[in-house]
């Protein structure tokens, strides 16, 4: 789920939050008009450096990986098992981040059509999504790659469940302050990993395309 996001105007965001924008050397320019896809550089704020916007690779590469090509990047992490997975459990306390984007897309199959829904903020210009990050170092070149994973949860009875069975953790001001707090306990942090309020976002149909060949049957449209 959530493998295509809407980029945010980082310069305007930097001015609005009154924090510097740190761009990695030699990186591909981040264009505000582009969609953000897995493995792209994405703006984040970490709890260890909360007064600056950094760019990290979407798709976490474990620090102990021998080679970037030898592992499948972890684009999303399930909140329910976060504290049980070796890759993530230590990052909860040491390496939290907020992922910044202006929205995201989800796809749904309806009969013989594939619908793409666009999810955007209602009041704010961008979302703050909960994530975890880490640093991987190439043993031969010494090159460092900072990467992150986006935390998702089960929407349960939430209206988001109408279009997908997973949703990102979108945080309000009080929640992100605690997520960024270096003194927060693990219990406090895990308690934050739940669906956001339904008035935080809006859903609209972005595009609808016919499926070539036989598509699986789905219920009629749930958002009009």
TrEMBL record:
GO term, biological process aspect, one: proteolysis
Molecular function in Gene Ontology: lyase activity; peptidase activity; single-stranded DNA binding
Keyword DNA damage assigned: yes
Protein name (Swiss-Prot/TrEMBL): Abasic site processing protein
SUPFAM superfamilies: BB1717-like
InterPro entries: SRAP, SRAP-like
Cross-referenced Pfam families: SRAP
Keywords, ordered alphabetically: Covalent protein-DNA linkage, DNA damage, DNA-binding, Hydrolase, Lyase, Protease
Source species: Pedobacter sp. KACC 23697
PANTHER family the record matches: ABASIC SITE PROCESSING PROTEIN HMCES, DC12-RELATED
E.C. numbers: 3.4.-.-
Top class in the EC scheme: hydrolase
Protein family: Belongs to the SOS response-associated peptidase family.
């Amino acid at each position: 789920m959530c493998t295509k996001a809407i980029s945010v105007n980082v310069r305007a965001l930097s001015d609005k939050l009154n924090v510097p924008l740190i761009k990695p050397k030699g990186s591909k320019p981040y264009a505000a008009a582009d969609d953000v896809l897995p493995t792209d550089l994405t703006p984040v704020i970490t709890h260890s450096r909360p007064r600056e916007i950094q760019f990290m690779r979407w798709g976490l590469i474990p620090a102990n990986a021998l080679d970037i090509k030898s592992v499948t990047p972890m684009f999303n992490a399930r909140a329910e098992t976060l504290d049980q997975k070796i890759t993530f459990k230590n990052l909860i306390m040491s390496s939290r981040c907020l992922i910044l984007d202006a929205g995201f897309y989800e796809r749904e199959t309806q009969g013989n059509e594939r619908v793409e829904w666009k999810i955007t903020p209602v009041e704010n210009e961008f979302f703050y999504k909960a994530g975890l990050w880490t640093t991987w170092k190439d043993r031969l070149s010494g090159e460092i790659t900072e990467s992150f994973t986006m935390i998702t949860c089960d929407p349960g009875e939430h209206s988001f469940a109408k279009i997908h069975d997973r949703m990102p953790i979108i945080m309000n001001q009080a929640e992100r302050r605690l997520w960024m707090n270096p003194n927060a306990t693990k219990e406090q942090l895990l308690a934050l990993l739940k669906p956001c309020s339904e008035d935080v976002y809006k859903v609209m149909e972005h595009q609808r395309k016919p499926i070539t060949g036989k598509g699986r049957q789905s219920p009629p449209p749930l958002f009009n």
